[in-house]
Amino acid sequence: METILVAARRHATLVGVAALVLTLSALALVSRVSFDPNILRLLPQRSPSVQQFQHFLQDFGSLEHLYIVFDADDGVANHEELVDAYVDLLRKAPEIASVDAELFEPGKDWSYLSDRTLYLLGPDDAKAALARFRSPQLDRELEHARGLLSMPSAQIKTLVQQDPLGLFSILRDRMSRQKGFVSFDPSQEGYVSADGRSRMILAQPKGAPFDTAFCARLFQRLGEIGAAARKTAGDLDPAIATVGIQAAGAYRISLEAERLIRREGVANTIGSMVLLLLVVLVVFRSAWIMLCGAVPLTIAALLTLGINGSVLGTLSPSTSGFAAMLFGVGIDAVILLYVRYLEEVRNGRSGDDATRRLSGTASSVVLANVTTAVTFAALVTVDFPTLRDLGSLVGLGILLCCALTLVLLPAMLSRHRPARAPRMITAAWLGRFVQQRARWIVIGGAVVTVALGVAATRLRLDAGIDRLQAQTEGARLEKEVADRFSLPRDVLLILNDAADLEQVLQADERLQAALAAKLPSAPASGISFLLPSERSQAAVAQAIGSADVTTDNVRRDLAAAADRAGFRERTFDPFVDRLPRLLDHSERVSYDGLSAHGLDSIVSRFLVHRNERYESVAYVYPRPDTDLTALARIVHDVDPHLAVTGLPVINRELGAQFFPQFLKAMAVGTAAVMVLVYAVFRTVRYTLLTMLPTAVGLIWTAGILALMRVELDLFSLFALVTIVGIAVDYGIYVLYRYRFDHPSRIEDVLRETGAAIAIACATALIGFGTLVNSSYTPLRVFGIVSVVALSSCLLASVLFLPALLRQAET
Q1: Which of 8, 251, 387, 510 could hold 410 in an S-S bridge, CB 3.0 to 4.6 Å?
Q2: DSSP string computed for 376-436
Q3: Strands (E), 233-308
Q4: What whole-number percentage of the chain has pLDDT above 70?
Q5: Distance (Å, rounded) from C-alpha 542 to C-alpha 585?
């Protein structure tokens, strides 16, 4: 260590040139770094439910819709010209693959299904529906039709003429119960909210929602479309400017999250650096030492970010705060080495001799930095990509920062010629306080530890994935749109695939029947609603053939009943024209038929055909109190091949996997730290004493957070793993000076190093404290946990541990 320090001081020019080369290289690497706001990147990648969920997104993309919402206080129906103009332009946009403006829009030939309505009802309901073709049920349905015509709506009139027996209403009610489609009102044009003030358009963009470059182009295009649509409709509607047009969905959330990550990454980095350097300036009253701290920290941060970005490709949201953490921890080495340097200079030694005598402190700094890096590296062992990213970033950054400090600080100090004697930083009062109150400090520390340990049992943890989502305006709007249009949330997904379509359809029918019978509180919708199995359709055909309902009989009975109900002659000709197809027991609903009639956009929500296999998904809408274990058992009994996933299942798996992952990281990090400490101190006693302040400080931390009612999430709780490596540094500095580097009484150790340790902790608090203002909730809570933990561990290291050593001396 002495050789490294002296060589760096003697070859300062060479060190400076090397630092410049490293900086330029780091800048080149950083320019290619990108951030991935995909929330799935935050989740365990080996989790079966996460893998199945990603498979669902890849095949069906149901969470990748773009929702365009029109809002008008005077009713959105008064601005159809604007909506139509917008939809026309949206369909022509090169970034858009498809647009769903209304359920019955042109291009969707619903007559294909309406002519085969009986086949969609299944054998039992088809028999009940066939009773409507004969009196007295026929008369009751026509009376109901007259009631519908009291509504002044052209759509209702057309509906009654085409379906006087209400067969479509059966399908619509079933559709509503299964929640398979957006809630809609047939009297309105398009997907309109219940209050009539909003209308929603669903679009499917061509690019991925986590391709931020594509998202930027997409929203630029949407802005142009909105302006052009307003201009087109402006001549027809003078109130056009009052209509609001907003976009919601994964594409907006992705774009806003990526911008938020970049903005806060820059703010945290600059903010923490400025605050840290100000503290150094105030304490040491030297601009030169401020520069000595900034140079190694900056180079280490840039080089770390560039290396990790090149290796990993993209970085997760959590890494936006890595520089603040690195600065807060990395500057400790600069402070401790500089304080020791000042001590030697004040004792009359030359710059070369003072640098040479830094080797003992430098050794403790290396040990402390390695233990900190090891605990961050322990995060690489857990199955949370975001934590692995954070662990690799900060762990590598600390090692680089330590190495750069050991080389750059002696080199820069060789060029420093202070005009006046340097200011000494001591803490004589701390040494006297511990010496005089050691017994009471030990007793008080033990009492506080027990009390806060009891309080820690009330600490709360939210393991839900929602806590990990960046809270942007787009995320808020998406929730609002879901409530306004009754879009289902917290959906369970039942996935299936087979080479034989009939096998897939029959499995879906069995699933629907099993859930309806055993778990009626969780409605479900699947492909068998639109595409019944051949077995089911054959049973319906048999029911039609045995019902003795013919086209001629129904035509005659309908005309007589219509006359009795007061309808004009030939009112129901559209329905009569459909009768031969409706009652044809040779007809069938087919996959190719649905696609050929423009209904593929609807079918693709439930069924896709790829690589010679059919893949299906059924959507289940559980209540909050639904027993997911019982539901999974029902699904398994239907077909063991079926897979259950969705955010509720993922949340449950997260809760189940978290503590094993947490304990694994904590055990790996703690064991590695203890091995390193033992390798230096060579005694179990001093190894345990080094770890004691950290253990006590973490107990205090848990109790304080519980009393503060801070709710932890999966990400922020792992802060405790990293704190093991950071906080143990303070115990290392105390014990290393006490045992190896000029052994002396504990009060002398505190007088000489206590202030440096306090300043080092203060800088760490600043680095982590900048995260408290983060808009990204996991980072904000991470910052709170770190600030409380570091403060607690500092007090345990400079008060509780020295008091124990003092008591041992006496």
Answers
A1: 8
A2: HHHGGGSS-HHHHHHHHHHHHHHHHHHHHHHHHHHHHHTT---SSPPPP---HHHHHHHHH
A3: 244-249
A4: 85
A5: 7
- Single-letter amino acid code for the residue at 667: A
Residue 756 host element (H or E): helix 746-769
Q: Over the stretch 461-496, which tens digit does the pLDDT of each residue have? A: 776 666 666 667 777 787 787 777 766 667 888 999
Q: Buried (b) or exposed (e) across 20-37, using 16+ Cβ within 10 A?
A: eebeeebeebbeebebbb
* Nearest one of 499, 494, 490 to 510, comparing CA atoms: 494
DSSP string, 202-246: EEEESS-TT-HHHHHHHHHHHHHHHHHHHHHHHTT-TTGGG-EEE
Q: For residue 294, count other CB atoms closer than 10 A to its CB.
A: 18
Q: Dihedral of CA 732/795/404/338: which sign?
A: negative
* Rounded Cα gap, residues 782 and 37, in angstroms: 18
| Residue 308: burial class (beta carbons within 10 Å; 0-12, 13-18, 19+) | buried
**Both structure tokens of 270:** 């600059």
**C-beta of residue 363 within 8 angstroms of C-beta of residue 441:** no
Distances (CA, A) of 10 to 83, 192, 323, 597, 680: 74, 77, 31, 82, 29
pTM of the model: 0.66
**Residue at 102: amino acid letter:** E
Contact 558, 137 (CB under 8 A): no
Q: Which helix (H) or strand (E) holds 646?
A: strand 643-646
Average pLDDT, the chain: 81
> Does the structure show a pLDDT above 70 at 420?
no
Buried b (16+ CB within 10 A) or exposed e, 458-482: ebebbbbbebbbbbbebbebbeebe
Sequential DSSP letters for 65-132: -EEEEEE-TT-GGGGHHHHHHHHHHHHH-TTEEEEE--TT-TT--THHHHTTHHHHHHHHHHHHHHGG
Residue for token digits 């949407």?
Answer: 222
Distances (CA, A) of 406 to 308, 344, 366, 399, 669: 23, 17, 9, 11, 25
Long-range contacts of 350-355 (CB under 8 A, 24+ apart): 351/9, 351/413, 351/414, 352/6, 352/9, 355/5, 355/6, 355/9, 355/410, 355/413, 355/414
User: Which region, left, alpha or beta, applies to residue 107 given φ > 0 means left and ψ of -120 to 50 means alpha?
Assistant: left
